[in-house]
């Protein structure tokens, strides 16, 4: 194979990986509890989301006696358009905007807990901590930086909870995580018009493991403070690159990358202000900055392909919410959340046109009978208008094809769920707090 084709193949691999890894780690999913969503996830680490609050703090499983299971189904309806701006390569600017790149997705999540005795609980949660689905027009001004992006994750988290006394509980357990991605983008080929550029792709998957741990403190009746931690999960991603050129096909082959997902620290506070009303506060920190630079290696070539300067910032989320018991069966709730995104103008891509956001949330629960409770919630996320710049020496650069754009986006989220519970098991008398 001649040198020109070999050098060209390395450039193709570099371009694919550069946008791929940016997609892999910068879009987290928080929608794991219908009940907590109704308050903007305020107080989730203190148990405001029921047993599903295990996602933020596994120690919440000791807050409910007997056997409890919760199942939630959330529909995420994002809407986002990217409009080319001055600075875009004129040849590509004529191709127009992205159209609506948002793709609706259903997100199931569930959690269950079982009380063994007056001190021990077992729990298990299944959730999706990361995900992304975007699809612009096949032909558009930013096609060399993204035609479609799909990221899927699944985490399984069994935990053991221990009630130390009436005011302190702790819990911990392994977190087993599956991660998969499929990404496509236009492959620029000299002599071919951009309107007929073929697509190249990257696919990869990995299993990894970490842990969760947490504690709840109840210093007095009506006050609950929760602190939870989800560790980073190390992924050795094995994948393949495909290119639509026969001459380059032998060089496409396999690639690998090492990715460490961000840790999450969650703090929640629930305070009763009357026998029928509670106010909740929440704080979350996600260590996105740990991603730093990610090395990409082609197994086929046996060479490093690139070092990715992702340079994400840490993410922070603040929330406040409240709930009111209308009667013994009906509870209504509302909340507000604000998030500072790990993505800004310095690292924003067409695959992840994310930005700072705030959310308005409402929800309700209806206790059908002593065992069954039905939950529902609705949220609207407002995202700041943001800008994208790729190419010409930027971190995301394919053949120095400049792309500048303006992003307008929002998200509507609808969630439904249920809780089913049995009574407490036969056990010795409960612990008595001693002074």
What would you say this structure looks like, in words?
This protein has 435 residues and is mainly beta. Helix content is 8%, strand content 52%. It contains 4 helices and 20 strands. β11 (264-274) and β12 (277-286) form a beta hairpin. The longest helix has 23 residues, at 3-25. It starts with a helix and ends in a 14-residue tail after the last strand. Mean pLDDT is 86; it is low at 1-25 and 426-435.
Short description:
With 435 residues, the chain is mainly β. The chain is 8% helix and 52% strand. The protein has helices at 3-25, 34-37, 90-93, 249-252; strands at residues 67-84, 105-115, 120-127, 132-134, 148-165, 168-186, 199-220, 223-230, 234-242, 254-260, 264-274, 277-286, 293-298, 303-309, 315-325, 330-340, 357-367, 372-383, 386-390, 403-421.
Topology at a glance:
Elements (H helix, E strand, L loop, with lengths): L2 H23 L8 H4 L29 E18 L5 H4 L11 E11 L4 E8 L4 E3 L13 E18 L2 E19 L12 E22 L2 E8 L3 E9 L6 H4 L1 E7 L3 E11 L2 E10 L6 E6 L4 E7 L5 E11 L4 E11 L16 E11 L4 E12 L2 E5 L12 E19 L14
Antiparallel strand pairs: 1-2, 1-20, 2-3, 3-5, 4-5, 5-6, 6-7, 7-8, 7-9, 8-11, 9-10, 10-13, 11-12, 12-15, 13-14, 15-16, 16-17, 17-18, 18-20, 19-20
Which descriptors would you attach to this protein?
435 residues, 52% strand, 4 helices, single chain, disordered C terminus
């Amino acid at each position: 194979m001649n040198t020109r084709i070999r050098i060209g193949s390395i450039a193709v691999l570099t371009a694919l990986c550069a946008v791929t890894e940016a997609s892999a780690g910068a879009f987290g999913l928080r929608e794991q509890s219908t009940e907590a969503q109704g308050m903007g996830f305020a107080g989730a680490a203190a148990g405001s989301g029921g047993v599903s609050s295990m996602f933020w703090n596994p120690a919440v499983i000791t807050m409910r006696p007997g056997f409890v299971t919760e199942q939630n189904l959330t529909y995420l309806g994002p809407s986002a358009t990217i409009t080319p701006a001055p600075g875009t390569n004129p040849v590509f600017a004529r191709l127009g905007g992205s159209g609506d790149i948002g793709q609706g997705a259903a997100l199931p999540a569930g959690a269950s807990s079982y009380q063994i005795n007056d001190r021990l609980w077992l729990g298990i949660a299944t959730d999706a901590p990361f995900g992304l689905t975007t699809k612009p027009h096949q032909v558009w001004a930013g096609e060399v930086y993204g035609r479609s992006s799909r990221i899927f994750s699944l985490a399984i988290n069994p935990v053991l909870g221990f009630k130390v006394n009436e005011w302190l509980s702790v819990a911990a357990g392994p977190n087993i995580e599956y991660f998969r991605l499929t990404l496509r983008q236009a492959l620029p080929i000299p002599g071919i018009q951009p309107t007929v550029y073929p697509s190249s792709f990257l696919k990869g998957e990995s299993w990894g493991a970490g842990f969760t741990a947490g504690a709840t403190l109840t210093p007095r009746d009506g006050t609950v403070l929760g602190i939870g931690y989800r560790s980073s999960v190390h992924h050795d991603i094995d994948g393949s690159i495909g290119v639509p050129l026969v001459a380059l096909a032998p060089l496409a082959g396999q690639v690998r990358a090492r990715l460490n997902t961000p840790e999450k620290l969650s703090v929640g506070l629930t305070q009763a202000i009357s026998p029928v009303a509670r106010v909740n506060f929440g704080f979350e920190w996600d260590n996105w900055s740990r991603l730093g630079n990610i090395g990409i290696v082609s197994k086929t070539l046996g060479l490093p392909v690139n070092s990715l300067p992702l340079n994400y910032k840490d993410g922070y989320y603040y929330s406040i919410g409240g709930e009111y018991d209308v009667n013994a069966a009906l509870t209504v709730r509302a909340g507000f959340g604000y998030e500072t995104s790990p993505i800004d103008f310095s690292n924003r891509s067409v695959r992840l046109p994310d930005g700072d956001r705030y959310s308005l949330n409402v929800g309700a629960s209806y206790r059908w009978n002593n065992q069954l409770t039905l939950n529902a919630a609705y949220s609207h996320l407002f995202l700041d208008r943001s800008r994208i710049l790729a190419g010409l020496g930027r971190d995301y650069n394919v053949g120095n094809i400049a792309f500048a754009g303006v992003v307008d986006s929002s998200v509507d989220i609808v969630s439904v769920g249920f809780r089913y519970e049995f009574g407490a098991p036969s056990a010795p008398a409960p612990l008595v707090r001693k002074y």
